[in-house]
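S1.2 Input.
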Amino acid sequence: MLNVTFLGTAGSLPTPERNPSAILINREGEMILFDCGEGTQRQMMRARTGMMRLNYIFLTHLHADHILGIPGLLETMAFQGRVEPLIIAGPVNTVRLIDAFKAVCYFSRNFEVRAIELKAGDVIRMGQYQVEAIETLHSVPSLGYCLQEDLRAGRFNREAAIALGVPPGPLFGKLQHGKCVEVDGKTVHPHQVMGPPRPGRKIVYTGDTRPCRSVEIASNNADLLIHDCALADDMANWARETKHSTAGEAAQLAKRSNVRELVLTHISSRYSEDASQLLKEARSVFERSIVAEDLMKLEIRLRDE
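S1.3 Output.
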């Protein structure tokens, strides 16, 4: 199970329809938060995601609309009795930010909050998947993130195993787990009955950015690309000046990267009530585009191949 919940999809200004930036990923019960705009803890309550199994918060950059929900979220978890540590990772100055929050906010928490700073190319391993920091292009130091699952075992060829003399039963399981088995004095190896490894799932979240080559490379064949789309194409000059992306630019990158689905987020308040222009422009380039809405949920399924 790999679910994505869009807790906040607004641009720099929140609106009645959209909360500031926050995206929650739940992988097999383990929760990761990307950005934490103000009111994120309330959005988690509204979405009924829970928050006590949250282990990491990844910040794309330190603009206020991406970080001001941190104190409230920490305090809410404290009131709910959290004792497990929490790691907050982000670009340069993330440690100073969290130290400042600790200094001026009188937390009642009794759990450890540890801040770490990342640079592009840094990887954090988490069981059978990893999160890699990606270089992005914004008006302040910034990062995107790529969540990539490990390769999965190939498909088991039952007929090939039987043809090699392996009887159905426990020996099938051993071969599927990469172990050789002995049958009638001969050794059967896993590669004789297993197909090629299959890809795990991949999700890329850009945060605020101009389209850039590093994001394009990281997004290659991604199951889901969540890309900055602050503005429509007729605002391209303003997007370049403020270091954001338009709908068409995000869609062009998604098309070049051959992603399975593009979700546009960080929507300017200009389009808060009606984002149809953004959707139309994106789909004219890349059909598998949607515009994120607050509390929208997506399930990312494993590929069949």
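S1.4 Remarks. Residues 141 and 287 are 32 Å apart (CA to CA).
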